[in-house]
Amino acid sequence: MTNNDKNIKEKIKERYGNIAVFGNSDSCCTPSSECCSSEENPAESTIQSIEAIGYNPTELASIPKSSILGVGCGNPTKFAHIKEDDVVVDLGSGAGIDVFLAANIVKDSGKVIGVDMTEKMLEKARDNAEKDNYKNVEFRHGDIEKRIPVEDNSADVVISNCVINLTSNKVKTFKEIYRILKPNGIGKIVISDLVTSKEMDEHSVNADDWCSCIDGSLTKENYLNCIREAGFTNIGVLDEKPYMEIEDNYDGSRKISSLVVKAIK
């Protein structure tokens, strides 16, 4: 890991730790005008923004309010076809929004494991689970591009919401996901993430913009190739939407799109 990679990782921990404590006031994977939730009560604009990317308001009403921070770019559970009894792993689980949505589907006979590297997010998620008496969820600390703290061949579904693009080594991350999924066509991933029309030169990367899910984005082709290189098959794009356009100081504008991608082990 380079010094720049370490710096980016520390910035990510700092940024999302602050979001866990103070709410999503100025930093997230949505345009800044939509980052307005407080620690305990998501602002109306935050609710509207996540409904716009695919969340169902009735389902949101069924989970802890303080798990809704508005830091995603899609709704992977909408496309994952999660079933009762499934073991689901959510990478970069934050305060737990997707974990709790999945937990309501898998019921008591299933299990949902949230993985995050930010201790303050984990504290918030565990507090949410305890307050709302979720017995079928667990939150674990882990760096997903080093080792996901989940057993080999144990998960039915892996979901993630605007987190893989925060990693420096995406192929390694997808190989870790491949390791924990059940084999023989049973295990699958459904990932919401951002891709870009033009990748940043490594010398022009800004750690703050990387933390906001921008500078670490790959092109759609390269993103799908990372999944393929990790060993996955039946790779497909389930949803694709324009997300934002950024005027760079370096070499013009970049178009950012949100994707929902599936693949099978």
Describe the overall structure.
By secondary structure, the chain is of the alpha/beta class. It has a single domain, classed as Vaccinia Virus protein VP39 (Rossmann fold). It is built from 9 helices and 7 strands, in the order ααααβαβαββαβααββ. A 7-stranded mixed beta sheet has the order 3-2-1-4-5-7-6. β2, α6 and β3 form a beta-alpha-beta unit. α1 packs parallel to α6 and α7 packs across α9. The protein is globular and about 50 Å long.
Radius of gyration over C-alpha positions, nearest whole angstrom: 17 Å
CATH class assignment: Alpha Beta
Tell me the strand order in the biggest sheet: 3-2-1-4-5-7-6
Give the proportion of residues in helices.
25-40%
CATH architecture: 3-Layer(aba) Sandwich
Q: Which superfamily, in CATH terms, is the homologous superfamily?
A: Vaccinia Virus protein VP39
The tally of structural domains comes to 1
Number of DSSP strand runs: 7
Note poorly predicted spans: 30-40
State the distance separating the first and last CA atoms: 28 Å
Structural class: alpha/beta
**Might you state the CATH topology name?**
Rossmann fold
Q: What does the average pLDDT come to?
A: 86
From N to C, what is the helix and strand string? HHHHEHEHEEHEHHEE
Discrete helix count: 9
Instruction: Characterize the largest beta sheet: strand count, sense, and whether it forms a barrel.
Output: 7 strands, mixed
Proportion of strand residues: 15-25%
The 3D shape can be described as globular
